[in-house]
Amino acid sequence: MEYERFEAIRNLFCQRHEGVTQGKMMHSPAIHYHNKVFAFFSRSKKMVFKLGKDYPLDGSDVEISAFNPFKNKGPLAGWYEVDHRFQDAWEELTATALEAIKAK
To answer: For residue 78, what pLDDT band results from cuts at 50, 70 and 90?
Structure first.
């Protein structure tokens, strides 16, 4: 069910936004903008977003945490993950991540 929600979001963004395509990130299904990943579905059934280092984590009802795929390193700067319990927020966060990558 979680993957289907991700897939629906990915298809929607690919249809509505020029330059947005399907791809991979760390062997996981991802969403790209001009070949740069801005969101993907992790093996732990979470959606991961590149929101930027300055993204405010305070004041949201959604639990957003730093994404750390490594055992012996710190989290990836500017990348955040959101559990499937909050998948109602995934589409909005995908839009935020797309705008963040377009601004670079």
So the answer is: very high
φ/ψ of residue 27, rounded to 5: 65, 15
| β-strand pairing of 47-50 with 79-82 | antiparallel
C-beta atoms surrounding 19 within 10 Å: 13
Rounded Cα distance between 57 and 75, Å, is 15
Number of H helices, E strands in the chain: 2, 6
Integer CA distances (angstroms), 6 to 70, 77, 87, in order:
23, 22, 8
pLDDT tens string 12-40: 999 999 999 999 998 999 999 999 999 99
